[in-house]
Amino acid sequence: MSTVEEIVLAEPRGFCAGVDRAIEIVERAIAKFGAPIYVRHEIVHNTYVVNELKAKGAIFIEELDEVPAGATLVFSAHGVSKAVQAEARARGFSIFDATCPLVTKVHVEVAKLAKEGFEFIMIGHKGHPEVEGTMGQLSSGIHLVEDVADVARVQPSQTEKLAVVTQTTLSVDDAADIAAAVRARFPKVREPKQQDICYATQNRQDAVKILSPQVDLVIVVGSPTSSNSNRLRELAQRLGTESYMVDSADELKPEWFDGKTCVGLTAGASAPEVLVTQVIERIRALGAVSVRKMNGIEETIKFPLPKGLKLDDQAATPGHIS
Question: Is 168 helix (H, G, I), strand (E, B) or coil?
Answer without folding.
Answer: coil
